[in-house]
Structure formats: structure tokens, C-alpha cells
Batch of 4 targets.
Target 1
Amino acid sequence: MKKLFLLAFLLPSFTAFGQASVAYYPFNSFLSVSSNPNRAAWLDARVQTNTLFGSLATTLAPMINIRRTTTANYYVGVSARFNALNSLADADVLEGYGLHVGVRVVPLTILPNVRVAFELSPFARANFKSGIFYSYLGVAYQFNKK
């Protein structure tokens, strides 16, 4: 019975993961897990990886593809960045908001699942008194459902 329950729980997870994408942005130290970026609308979740407990910045970003070709996806989206550790310092958990404009390109047609991700993203603090302009460059891998 336990194996049946475990199988019933894990099978939908593997099916959903079969359409996911994982990206790493080494210059910004972000790890990204996305729903299927080949769809018209998709969700991207990013976690900061350059620190263990100094900052657990998590960004949630719904994206919309504005143009899709066989070798590139051009997209836009908005985001909200949260940091759970801010509550320990009596600060707001919500850090700010961002706007994303990017592209994921297939550089080698023999490896269609490997993509280069480039993105420009202005970011504003939650109080809108300051901000910064980010650029992201990374490598993504698109899992395909078989």
C-alpha cells in the first residue's frame, strides 16, 4: 500500500518535471526552475545560490512568450522578490519588483535542449525609492516529455 501511495504521489511529479527547465546564471548566482518555457505563458522561480544564510532571495516571475521560433524564445514578464530571512531582522519579506525582457537561444541545433539565456531586468525596491538594472546571462536545460 505504501508503494502504491508513493507511486501515485511521484508519478505526476515526474510528468510535470518532464516539461520543466532548469537554468543557472553564474554571474548573478541564481538557480532558476521554470515551467515549460515553450508555452505561451510560463512561471519562473529563482533562488540565490551564493550564500547559505546571508540572503535567501527568491524571485517568482510569470513570463509571456512574445515570439517563438525553432531556435529562440523571446519573452517578457514581471516579478516579485521575497526574502524569508528579512523577517528575522524585522524587515519586509517583500524586497521588490522587477520587469524582465529576455531570450533563450538554442546555440547548437544538435543539442536542442541546451539553451543560452540572456535577460535584462530593471528592479525596484518595494518602496520604489531605489532600484537597480540587472543583466543575466546563463545556461538553461529544457527537459522534454517523452
Target 2
Amino acid sequence: MRNIFNILVLVVAFYSGSYAQNSRPLFPVKSAQIKYSVKMFGSEGTMVVNFDNFGKRQVSVLNLNLFGSPLNTKILLIDNQLYNINVNEKHYSKSTLTEKDFERMNYLINEAEITKNPNLRKEKPEILLNKNCNVYVLQQKGLETKYWVWKNLILKLQSTAQGQTISILATEITEGIQAPDVFKIPSEYKVISN
């Protein structure tokens, strides 16, 4: 159960992880919003990802009723500062990501890394939302995760472990900043230590 939940956290954090500390654009457009449907453990929910400055500012918001409890989490990345925001409890933690952190989370968009990782393989490309996607499968420690990636953006993910499946599917991509306030932490939220 913990492995499958960890993959969900990784998915939400993927956009944060795809930030690289260099000047090349990370994503194919300057700013956009991607809406996803999320299915896991018999529950359905939504995830909305916004990014700006070609991915150097990113926020992922996940809303899901999980085991009878609402899970409303927001992960915000501004440069190398990562904020994990608990919307229900109105608090957040802050951490600084190092170059090694980015490297560990950035394997999907680095084609050279695919050949180095024996647990990750590239499959035949597929089309989603009229976008040509590269398809990758990661198998490790009883967990199999399949990613559909279009120009560094995950459009679909299916992950299975211990008989449980998580499915995340992009339903809409809209270019431009849709909600500028999503990149801010409300002033009434309290910071907690890690």
C-alpha cells in the first residue's frame, strides 16, 4: 500500500522534479494548465497542474476522497524551493532541492538516462489529446508504472502494486496562466518544520 501511495506523491511532485537548474526550457509552452482525472483505491478525484516560465514555477493541486478522508494537497515549486501545502490543515513545509534531488526526480525527461536504468524502458509512442507521446515503463520493487509523456509533460500514468492501480489521465491542456494566485501560499497558512 505504501509503494502505491508513494507513486502518487511522485506523480504530483513530478513537475517539481522536472525542473532543471539550467536555462533550457523544460516544457514546450511558456505557461499552461493541465487538468487530470485521478482514480485510485476505488476513489476518483482531480489533479490540476499549472506552470509558468517554461516550468520554473509549478504547482500541482490534488483533490481526492481517499478511504473516507479528503486529501487536498498542493505542491508548489519556485526555483529550487519546494513547498508541500496541506490545504485541509492550512499549513506547509518548505525545503530546498539540491541538484541531486532534481537528478533523481528527472529520469523521465532525460533520454540518456533511459539507457542507463535497467528498470526503465521505452515503448512504442502513442497519441493522447492529439499529442504524440513517448511511453515509458518503470518496474521496480513490485511496482510497475507506465507513463505517457509529451514534451516533458506526463499526460497519462498507470501504476500497479499489490493488486492496486492508480490511473491519472490528462483531460484538458490550456495554454497561458489560468489562475495566477495558485503560485501563492495564503497568508493565513502556517509554516511547520520538516
Target 3
Amino acid sequence: MTFLREKSINVVVLCILIAGAWFRLTWYGDLRLSIGHADTRSYVSGSQAPLFSWKIFAGTRLFTTNIFYKLANDEQKCPSFAFSSPSEGLESRRANQPCFDKIALLQNILAVCAWSFLAWMVARRLKNPVIKIVAATIIIIFAYTPQIAEWDSLLSPESLTFSLLLIAFALLLEIAFGTVGASDKKFASLRDRLLIPVFVVVYLLWVFVRDVHIYSILMSLILIAPLYLWKNFRQSQTLKWVSLTLIGFFILGSVSAKASLRATHYPLEHAFNAYIWKYPQRVEFIKQFDMPPRESPEFQTWFDANATKTYGLFLISHPGFVVTTLWDNTDQFKSDFIQPYFVTKDIQYRDSLIKIGEMAHPQTNAVFVLDVLFLVALGFKAFKYRNGETIVWFWLAAWFLLTAVITLVPTFFGDIDGTRRHIFPSVELLRLFMWIFLFPLLDYSEEKFGSL
């Protein structure tokens, strides 16, 4: 009976995912419709770098988007794209455009697969049938309401950012739970030997979507490091291979970002104009690092070589500035993040969908407080009970939360132009964190005390 019950619940969850996918694929119009913005042309030009070349990493854009936009880098076959510029009051209709239709279709299909995969993986690790169903339902609502779904039509990296990270996290969740109960060798099963390389590839593809993602590698290595305290992990060749691979690609990402100058031309120039040059004391701090006069011919060379490191040191040594600046801009972190790029009159009942989405995407900074409380609660359970499942949930929560934070802060301070679009993925990940990790807490409480 228990077996049949579990199977029937899985069927219900699967039906929810199929129904959600059908809604998502049919409700928002032709999946090939797309719209570009001011940065789209740079993704097209960046993709023209030869595949096996240094420029594919160190060009105007990063490796993953360069590969992705090779679908539309033929100027004769792909002459133009529908364009929108919200800052200038220009909001256009999406269009079915040669070459770009493939990019939009791929973004939409990948998004549906990623969100469905995440919902399935989270639900299958929960025990209570009601909580399983609710978890899958809320994740699907979170994904398929306009706050997220409409961004998949934009010719920009936001859709890829979500899809690749969610797939990577779902794989990581499966791998992490696969270690629970293993007594001799970690990652010894065939399934794990297959899943781990797939996770690494997907994760690294996500890393090379945006420069700020590179910092998450350091965070991942820090979270991996304590695992070496256990003999079984310490003796695992797979874990060593993963660690060395991440270190290698962190070096590659750092070197390629510096060589490309894409961080200094123009994001950091904008940041320095906003946060440094107007304030004499801050300028004096920067001068400590051998900065030549701004009017001198040597300045631009110094800036290209040292701006990223110097600005990073400034932020680290001025935590008061970081905290007060974030505090003064809290309104940006509770934005609705509704896309402003294309006209949406053809989407039926959109206002109702937005209202439903507002329940899954609460526009309040209380979300960040709840995230921390949930992480602490999971940490407390892991420390108190010290069983494999509670430790895994805590480790995964720490990885997810720190990934969102470590991409949010550099994004916010790294460029003042287009801040809302740039911080959108990180803030929404923090909102998603609240839902994903609420359910393990409810599941564990129900198992202990029984209420559902």
C-alpha cells in the first residue's frame, strides 16, 4: 500500500508539471517571438569569435552567450531584430525574426525543462504527500507567471541565467542526497559518476553567462572544503577532480575577464563615476594603489589593469558604505520585476496572472529576513539531529543562498546602468529560496509532530 501511495503521489506531481508546462508553452504566444534591447547587439557581435579561440572567452561577452548567439551571428541571414528601449519610452511588440526565433524558442523550451526538473527534484525529496504537491505547485506558479515567464522572450542572458542554474541546482540536490547512507565510498555509484560531470558542465556554462557568476566558484570551493574532514570524501578522487576543475575554471574566468576589459569598459567606469570620483576621501583611497592623475595618458592603462581589484578592495574595506548604499536602495530589491520591454496586449488575463504571481513573488524585503531565518533553522536541525538528510538540506540551502547573494552584491555595485535588469535574477533567486527551503522545514516538522 505504501508503494502504491508513493507512486500515486508521484503521478499527481507529474500531472501538475505537465499541466503547468502545457499552460506555459501555449499561453504566452508563439515561443519564437522575441525582442532585443540595447545590449543585444553586443551578444551577437561577441558570438562571431571563432569557437576554438581565446576571444570566445575574452571577448566582449562570455563563453556561454557567445556559443548561444552563434545561432544569429550571420549578418546576411539575420539582418536586424525588434528593438526596445524602456529608458527612452520605446516599447515594441515582439517579432518572429529569422535566426532570433531559434534563440527565443530555445530559451522558452529550456526554461520549461529547467523549472519542471527543479520542481520534480524538490518534490521527490519530500516525504509528506500534501507538502510534495504544494511544493511542486508553488514552484510552477513562481515560474510560469509573468514575473518570470515573459523574460524568456528577451534577447538577453536573464533566461539562461535562471535555466542553467536551476538545472545545476537540481542535479546538485540529487547528487547530495545520493551521498546520504553511503558508508564506504562517496560517489561510487554509476549514477553519481554520470551526474557529477553533467552538473559540473551545466554549472560552468552558467558561470560563463555573466562575469559576476565567477565569484560563486570561490563560494562553492569554500563549501566543499569542510567535506575533506571526512575520510570517505577525502579519499574520493571524484571530489578532488571537481575541486581542481573549479579552481582551473576560476583562474580561466578571472584571466579572461581581465583580458577582455568588459568589466572596465564600461561598467566600472560608470561605478567609479557614481561612487568614487565625486568624493575626495574615496579618491585618496584609490590613489594608494599608484593611480596616476586622471588627466594623464597613463590613467586608462592603469584603470584597465587595476580597477577591478582596487574597487573590490574599496568595497571590502568600506563595509559602512556597502551597507548604507544597499539600505538607501532597498526599494530596488522589492521591485515587481515585470519586464518593460514589449507590449503584452496579446496575453490573455495577464493582469490576473500578475496578481497570482505577486503571491509567489512577494514585493517585500522581509523575504531576505525569512531566507536567513530558514537557513538558521535548517542549520539548527542539522546540528541538533546530525542525520544525513538535515545536513544535506542545510548545505544545499547555504549553497543556494550564498550563490544568490554573491552574485547580487557585485552586480549592484558593478554598474549603475540597467541595475534593475541586472539584479533581477539574484533577487528572484532569493525569493525562490524562501519557497524551496520552506518545504523541508514543514516536512521535517510534520514527520516529527504530525499535523498533515
Target 4
Amino acid sequence: MITMDDLFALTKSAANVEDEKRVTLVLDPQISAEEAVRQLVHYFGKEEQKAIKLSLEGQDRGYMLRSDIPFLMTFGTRGVDDSAGASLPGGLSDVTLIKLCCPTAGCPQVLLVTNYDENDPPTCDDHETAMERCK
């Protein structure tokens, strides 16, 4: 079973990452490491980015590279009939990430969150303006 410490142990510093779009995944402190991995798999499955910055409780935790995702996945062997009566796990379709952008023209900052307070949205690191849902 993977832990958040395992997840963050694979992150890289900004100096070691080509930061194309400056996308940050804001992890909810209530989710498990497995759910965080599901969110990363979901993101990298839809986007061409090579890296994404992780943030937890307002702290930047480093960059996760697309190439490191397989190291976070768990695999196991199964015997004959092990799946009989088993329920299917939740699919990636139930992962909902809200994309927030800086309203300043040309700013590349993007936040991915599972939820946020519309009356108190996160702010852009560069412009200190309230982030908005991307158009």
C-alpha cells in the first residue's frame, strides 16, 4: 500500500523539471495516497505535460513526472477464480478535477483542485489575483 510519503519521495525540485505550463495539482488533505495517484493518472491520461507540481495544505511538495507514475502503481498476481464475486473498483471517470486559471492575460499558472470555496478562491502566485474556472 502506497503512502503520501512514498508519493512525495518521488517528486523532483523545480530545478530538475522543465516547467511547460506551470500546472499545480492541489491535493485534498482528506484523500488517501491511492486517490492522489488516481488523480495523477487521470491528469496524465488527458494531458501531454511531462510534469505537474503537487501541493498539500498550502505547501509545494515538488514535481511529479509522468515517467514516475508506473512506480506508484501496485500490481499483484491472481489465482484461478480470485475475481469471483469481486466488485469492480471505481474507474477514472469518477475523478473530477476543476481547472482554475489566472485571469491575467498570458499567465500560464493553472491549478487543479477537487473542490474550492468560490467565495474565497485560491490566488495566482505571480499576480495575487483570484483564480477562476478556465474557459
